[in-house]
Specification:
Radius of gyration: 19 Å
Strand order of the largest sheet: 1-2-3-4-5-6-7-9
Structural class: alpha/beta
Strand content: 15-25%
Helix content: 40-55%
Shape: globular
Number of helices: 13
Length: 327
């Protein structure tokens, strides 16, 4: 089995699981990060979601600090911090503090998404107007990290922390102009052609102190198991939760499944769509599909996403994926 020839990393959204507390969900994230380091993954990233019933990860900077303290070498990052929700100076100070405490191990991934519901957006004082200022706020954030702003953000970062942009809308063009890494995932990789966004990113890329050349992470839900059906069962709980969020307005805690897709036709369509945007199967199947995706995108790194209800199954999936990356 040929090597994938690029680094592989993990993004954990800190999904809650039915029957467990949210504290137990966060503890599971920490244990997974420790395991990911031992398995040889390059990065371990966490996300930002607010007031979502089935996700315990709301404060990435806090969680990153805890994960960095419990590991020794793996890079810890955000996938990502949503700039509309924060003052750029505060994000810069958080990232710089983490990099000062854990030098050379911190990544800052940023995005422009806003809260899932109007109530959350009101609570965050962030909406469409703030999202439209993303490029301006990103430039401000970088100036604070680089020491080029009107005030000096402390601790001084001197531009050492790598910054990545989660590509939504014009994200690829913004990342190119700023000379930052790009994270491309979801439907952009499978249901619509990624070539145009990637071509614009690479063509318009301006080298920076962080990235001398374009750098692309392909983010995709991944599950590996001894059989294809077992791998699908790992992804189904999150697929069901996502379908519920689109049809009922609530993203619930992950629940056990017997492997069947149920509910109204619209819900089943959403579940099938989630699985279509994922790579799951036996080790040879996953290696082949990942290799095809990486060949098609020319990505520099794979970022495996997706949360499982079955923690032991997720642990085995991580182990098998690490073997694929190293073999």
């Amino acid at each position: 089995m040929a090597s994938l020839n690029i680094p592989v990393s993990i993004l954990d959204r800190a999904n809650s699981r039915e029957g467990d507390t949210e504290a137990e969900a966060l503890q599971a994230v920490a244990e997974r990060a420790e395991s990911a380091e031992k398995l040889g993954f390059r990065r371990f990233w966490v996300a930002e979601h607010h007031a979502v019933a089935g996700i315990a990860g709301s404060a990435p900077a806090v969680l990153m600090a805890a994960l960095a303290a419990r590991t020794r070498s793996i890079r810890i990052g955000s996938g990502g911090m949503m700039l509309p929700n924060h003052q750029p100076l505060v994000v810069a100070e958080q990232a710089a503090t983490l990099n000062a405490l854990y030098p050379g191990r911190i990544d800052l991934g940023v995005g422009r998404s806003v809260g899932f519901t109007s109530a959350v957006r009101r609570a965050l004082h962030a909406g469409k107007a703030e999202a439209e200022q993303f490029e301006e706020h990103l430039a401000e954030l970088l100036a604070y990290l680089d020491g080029a702003a009107a005030i000096t953000a402390r601790p001084q970062d001197h531009g050492q922390t790598p910054v990545f942009v989660l590509a939504t809308g014009t994200g690829a063009d913004i990342a190119a102009r700023a000379g930052l890494g790009l994270v491309l995932g979801g439907p952009a990789l499978f249901r619509s052609s990624p070539e145009s966004a990637l071509k614009r990113y690479r063509k318009g890329f301006r080298p920076s102190r962080r990235f001398p050349r374009p750098y692309v992470l392909a983010a995709v839900n991944v599950a590996v198991a001894a059989t294809g059906s077992a791998a699908t069962r790992l992804l189904l709980p999150e697929a069901n939760a996502l379908a519920d969020s689109r049809t009922r307005g609530v993203f619930p805690a992950l629940a056990a499944t017997d492997g069947t897709v149920t509910g109204p036709e619209r819900r089943q369509e959403l579940v099938r769509g989630f699985l279509a945007d994922a790579i799951c199967g036996t080790p040879p199947e996953v290696r082949r599909r990942l290799a095809e995706l990486l060949d098609a995108t020319g990505a520099d790194e794979a970022l495996a996403t997706g949360g499982a209800y079955d923690i032991s199954g997720q642990r085995e999936s991580d182990r098998l994926l690490a073997e694929l990356a190293a073999s």
